[in-house]
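In this section we turn from sequence analysis to structure. A common task in structural bioinformatics is to predict how a protein folds when a small molecule is present, because the ligand can shape the pocket around it. The inputs are simple: the amino acid sequence and a SMILES string for the ligand, here magnesium ion. Study the lines below before reading on.
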Amino acid sequence: MAKYIVYVDMDHTLCDYDEGFGRHQLKHPELKYPQSEPGLYISLKPLPNAIESFEWLMKHPALDVYILTAPSIQNPHCYSEKRIWVEEHLGMEAVRRLIISPNKGLNKGHYLIDDCAIGKGQENFEGELIQYGFGRFKDWKSVISFFKEKLAGE
Ligand SMILES: [Mg+2]
């Protein structure tokens, strides 16, 4: 059976970047770009239901799921911090599925779950964009309902 390839973004989709950024800014008020200081990406909290939802997608036999995240290129620590975050919150199976890429439009696949529609190649993604946090995809519960409905009709 051919599987649907699904990509899942990290910042503002799996991870609560806003909460972490605010916390990091308080810690480093003197910095213009507090995100360039090590420790932000590793400390992000998962968004509500993000972990269970990712695990549901990853275990589904009809889906081939990857994490697709763009790096903060000014911050070399973010590459390793993202990798550690994935292991800590989602485990080694998810680490094997972690793709860090500045251009999401190069990836082949069917679905991209991402809070941004443009900026890191999302606009050139060949599949369908599920814009997390907007419209019918306002939260993880509605994203999972979409896939349950979609896959039930197969
Ligand atoms: Mg994002």
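The chain has a mean pLDDT of 95. As an exercise, try to locate the residues that line the magnesium ion site and compare them with your own expectations.
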